[in-house]
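Query form — protein CDR ABC transporter domain-containing protein

QUESTION: What is the three-dimensional structure of this chain?
INPUT:
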Amino acid sequence: MVNQFEKNDPRFIGGKTLLHYFGVADQSAWANIGAIFGFFGVFMVFTWLVLSFRRYERR
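ANSWER: The structure tokens for CDR ABC transporter domain-containing protein are given below.
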């Protein structure tokens, strides 16, 4: 949302801009992208840990 309305932030309900209404006006798009990659990295590490230490037996 920040990426889409960063340069053209329209007025919304009660004179607030769209980004202020949803509370994302002061957020950085690059910080959010970094958080997504961070979650992906943590997910991959936990997945690797479970797959390497959990033993599944076939019947």
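ADDITIONAL NOTE: The helical segments are 2-5, 18-22, 29-53.
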